[in-house]
Structures are given as C-alpha cells and as structure tokens.
Amino acid sequence: MSDYWRNKFEGRTEGGHRYRSEQWFKKSVQEHLFHIGEQANRQNVLVDIGCGAAELTVYYAPFFKKIYGFDFSSSMLQAAQKRVDSFNIDNIELIQGDACDFAEKIKTADIIISTQVVQFLSYEQLGRHLDESLKILNPKGSIFIFWIIDPKTEWLWDIGYLSDNKIGLPQLILRLLFRQKQIISRKLQRKPGTTELGYSHAKEKIKAICSSKNLEVEFSNALYLEYRYNASIKRKA
C-alpha cells in the first residue's frame, strides 16, 4: 500500500462503509458468509486483512475458532479493540500489518478475506498479497476478496447514473466531464488510484494474476453495492 493511502487512513477510527448502522454491518457479513459457505465453521481460522475498526469482523466471530484481524493503522486497531471488547468477544486477535505483510505474524489460516481493501492496491501489489496469503493458507483453504471496484460500472455510479434519484442527460454529461478532469488531474499529481475511491480492477487481469500463481478464481456480483464484485480464490486441483 502506498504512503498516500496510509496517510489518508492514519488517525481514522472508522471504515469507509456506505452506511454506519449495525444492520448494514450484519447483512454485509451475511452476504460474505454465504460465499464462504461450509468453510465458515468453528474448526477454522479466519484472517481478516484490513479489518479497520472491526465493524464487520465482530460478526464473523461466532462462526470461526479464531480470527486474526490485520490493519496498518494504529488508530483503527485501537478502535477495533474497543469494539471487540464491547462485544465481549474472546476469539479475535488484532495485529498491525497490511495486505502485503502479515504472513510471518501467524502460523496458518483456513480462510483469508479482505473487504474494500484491494482498491488501494495496484495489480503488482495484489499479486504480492496473494503470494503472502499462500504462505500461510492451508492446502484446501480459500481467499475471498470482497467488494472489488468494477471498472465497467464504477464510472456509471460515480456520475450518478446508478443512483435512485435519476438525473437528466445534461447533468450526466457535466458529471462525466468533471470526472475526466479529476482523473487527469490525479495522474498529473501522480496520485495512486483511478479516483479517490482507489483502483478499479478488471476481472480479466485478476484472473490472469491468479492463473500465473496456479490459482483458480470465481467472480460474483456484490449483493448490495452496484459497482462492486467479489472474487473467490483457491489453489487449482
């Protein structure tokens, strides 16, 4: 993760979720557990990369033997510990680390997840994240990358086309022009990411990265976020 994103999140005490309600956190985890399936059980170890303030992490706790939550931000981890304590949870351990540096801090994992994290990683860093995951992932384990920004639909969401409050064509054109101006400005300033949301990642490129590491991947649309999708990754048989 670049220093730009580190500086952006250092000092923060909450994640960048669309909604802040416990209902939203719960149903987000329910969606993810649906994809994890039978691997969500009290015999398995879950690693949550980029756990932030543990808004979602605490709701995984009843389904796993042990959870390791990683985040690079000390302020996020402090907020996460307060939240874990308030829920009286004893099977979550919080550790400082990031998506490309965590494997040496634990022994093994059955499931490795991240949610709204890879948008802050380039394709090269995404490859390093998978390499790091494979160091500790059990042979039959899985990696789940949740809520990846889809370049095919993100721009439609950004200009308001996917909004419930429909806007006219002139406004859409103005928003599209403004978006292009922001993208160009971002490149000139050498800021990472396509927009302030981060990088969007094409499914074809993620599939190619996985294939180069002898991994297979399946994609699914995010249930509650119009412009995002999920990736389920495991070793090829």
Structure explained in plain terms:
With 237 residues, the protein is α/β, with parallel strands linked by helices. The protein has a single domain (3-150, 201-235), classed as Vaccinia Virus protein VP39 (Rossmann fold). 37% of the residues lie in helices and 22% in strands. It is built from eight helices and seven strands, in the order H-H-E-H-E-H-E-E-H-E-H-H-H-E-E. The protein has helices at 3-9, 22-36, 57-60, 74-86, 123-136, 154-158, 169-188, 203-212; strands spanning 45-49, 66-71, 92-96, 109-115, 137-149, 215-221, 228-235. Strands 3-2-1-4-5-7-6 form a seven-stranded mixed β-sheet, sandwiched between helices. Helix 5 (123-136) links the parallel strand 4 and strand 5. Helix 5 packs across helix 8 (203-212). The chain is globular and about 55 Å long. 37% of the residues are buried. The model has no long low-confidence stretch (mean pLDDT 91).
Q: What's the quick description here?
A:
With 237 residues, the protein is α/β, with parallel strands linked by helices. The protein has one domain (3-150, 201-235): Rossmann fold, CATH 3.40.50.
What structural keywords apply?
237 residues; alpha/beta; Rossmann fold; seven-stranded mixed β-sheet; 8 helices; 22% strand; globular
CATH topology: Rossmann fold
Report the biggest beta sheet as strand number plus sense, adding barrel if it closes.
Answer: 7 strands, mixed
Q: What CATH architecture do you see? A: 3-Layer(aba) Sandwich
Number of strands: 7
Count the domains.
Answer: 1
CATH superfamily, please?
Answer: Vaccinia Virus protein VP39
Poorly predicted sequence stretches spanning 5 or more consecutive residues: none
Q: Can you tell me the CATH class?
A: Alpha Beta
Strand content: 15-25%
Shape: globular
Name the helicity range: 25-40%
Number of helices: 8
Output the radius of gyration.
18 Å
Strand order of the largest sheet: 3-2-1-4-5-7-6
Mean pLDDT: 91
Beginning-to-end CA distance, first to last residue: 31 Å
Helix and strand pattern: HHEHEHEEHEHHHEE
